[in-house]
Amino acid sequence: MVKYSIELKQRIIQDYLSGKGGSTYLAKLHNVGSSSQVRHWIRNYRAEGLPTAHSKVNKNYSMELKENAVQCYLTTDLTYEAVARKFEITNFTLLASWVNHFKIYGEVPISKKRGRRKKLESIASSMTQNPNDSQRIKELEQELRYAQIEVAYLKGLRRLEKNALMNKNQDSSTVSVKPSNSKKS
Which residues form a coiled coil (predicted)? Predict the structure, then answer.
């Protein structure tokens, strides 16, 4: 993705506001990849003002803010951009990734820590030095396998119960009513 300077964005927005041309013309004039990018800058200008050097700072968002933003998007008719502006999220595509993660896993993603790979490597190297740790890992792997088997069994049981209930409902809806043999007086 091409990064455009703050000065270029400001110049394009000023050109647009002064009536020098539309988004397509200004995108071609300033060698910007697409007119939709220019329209995006104009929308952001209208919502937040001119972009500044401090407007695009990497932020760490709290879990509470992520959850609130995701719930706001899911429960209202607002767009990703509108919700991002409301919660002061610098990039609406970040919100979209949180929403997708929530739809798949049922929770918002935990912030990724920088340097995590080095931590994991140091933990792995320290574990290879202690034989008790490798025994504990084997025990935990076995517990995990048992838990996976139990989950698979319970899912199968739930599926069988659901199928039995569906069959019972189908049988009861197709039962014919037999005429009674009562005598009329």
Answer: none
**Alpha-carbon distance values, 79 to 67, 96, 180 (Å):** 16, 10, 63
Over residues 153-162, mean pLDDT: 86
Whether 175 shows a pLDDT value over 80: the answer reads: no
Contact, 42 vs 11, CB < 8 A?
no
Tokens 């899911």 locate to 74
Compute the distance between CA of residue 80 and CA of residue 71 in angstroms, rounded to an integer: 12
Q: Domain map of the chain by residue range? A: 6-48, 63-105, 116-171
Percent of the chain with pLDDT over 70: 75
Who's near 69: CB < 8 A, 6+ residues apart?
Answer: 83, 84, 86, 87, 89, 95, 98
Region 46-70: mean pLDDT is 74
Centroid of chain to Cα 59: 17
How far from chain centre, in Å, is Cα 12?
32
| pTM of this prediction exceeds 0.70 | no
Q: Which of 61, 66, 73 is nearest to 107 (CA)?
A: 66
SS3 (DSSP) at 134 = helix
Quote the CA–CA distance of 174 and 23 in Å, as a whole number.
64
